[in-house]
Amino acid sequence: MRRDIYAYLTTATLATALVLSVFLVVSDNVLPFSTQATVKTTSVDVVPEVSGYIEQMYVKQGQHVNPGDTLFTIEAGPFKLAEEKAQASYQQAIYRFKRASNHFDRINTISNRSFTSEETTENAALTVQSAHSAMVSAEADLNLASLNLDKTEVKAKTEGVVTNFASSKGMYASKTASVLHLVGDQQWIDVDFTEKGLRSLSTDDTVNIVYDAIPGKVFRGKIESIEPAMNSGIDRASQLVNIQQETRWIRPQQKVRVRVQPDEKLSGIVAGSRASVMLRGSGTVSDGWMTLLSWFRFVY
């Protein structure tokens, strides 16, 4: 009797393994399925356009900000002095230009009466041109100084949530390093399917999604795009041919990156969360398998 039980268990185990293997082989070709799916989002590095010491922080970790909100300010003192210096130089350049113009007008009037040489008139004209160029340059310097002063107030250029917040008042902020990051609200899923199922995938196809973070539930989404190429499939003109040496009898299957847009955004899902995705097709097989998988997520 005990041998019969072991025989039944062994047969049932082998049958289950066989059915599962057949299912996975068929799904790879007809209803592509992948556990290699990751939730992605956009991230903006907030880098000041001028360097200086942070005067005040106006946000905190996890705070939601909108475009135009002030994030932090950099000490404006040095930039105010630079603007005042540029303003003074601009006023001097205006005065020199006006004086050169008046001098040229006098020389030109005298020249018309033949009381001065042609060379003197040309020199006066060149002086006017030089003074005008200096005035234009000084005006540009003033505009740049004013712009740098405005840049001491760093504002959000996009909507997002503050993260990687490690700066504080008094720290030096460089225009070559980020002070904080803004994580965008938009999310999508990058899925790596085996290339065998590529012919079964099309944009706008409905897929079933099971998130590791939300066991027991199946969500829906649509295929937004299918990557047309991978890094290994691009030949660059400036590089020599790179031949991959493959010594295994069975090589790993190539993966194709597919972007999926979920039908709904979930509050419990963050960028980097893992998921499993399967093409829905007619619905019966995919719905059943993904529902079973979602319950297994309670265990692993």
Automatic annotation (TrEMBL):
<feature type="domain" description="CusB-like beta-barrel">
    <location>
        <begin position="188"/>
        <end position="233"/>
    </location>
</feature>
<feature type="domain" description="Multidrug resistance protein MdtA-like barrel-sandwich hybrid">
    <location>
        <begin position="43"/>
        <end position="175"/>
    </location>
</feature>
<comment type="similarity">
    <text>Belongs to the membrane fusion protein (MFP) (TC 8.A.1) family.</text>
</comment>
<dbReference type="GO" id="GO:0016020">
    <property type="term" value="C:membrane"/>
</dbReference>
<protein>
    <submittedName>
        <fullName>Uncharacterized protein</fullName>
    </submittedName>
</protein>
<dbReference type="Pfam" id="PF25954">
    <property type="entry name" value="Beta-barrel_RND_2"/>
</dbReference>
<dbReference type="InterPro" id="IPR058625">
    <property type="entry name" value="MdtA-like_BSH"/>
</dbReference>
<dbReference type="GO" id="GO:0022857">
    <property type="term" value="F:transmembrane transporter activity"/>
</dbReference>
<dbReference type="InterPro" id="IPR006143">
    <property type="entry name" value="RND_pump_MFP"/>
</dbReference>
<dbReference type="Pfam" id="PF25917">
    <property type="entry name" value="BSH_RND"/>
</dbReference>
<dbReference type="InterPro" id="IPR058792">
    <property type="entry name" value="Beta-barrel_RND_2"/>
</dbReference>
<dbReference type="InterPro" id="IPR050393">
    <property type="entry name" value="MFP_Efflux_Pump"/>
</dbReference>
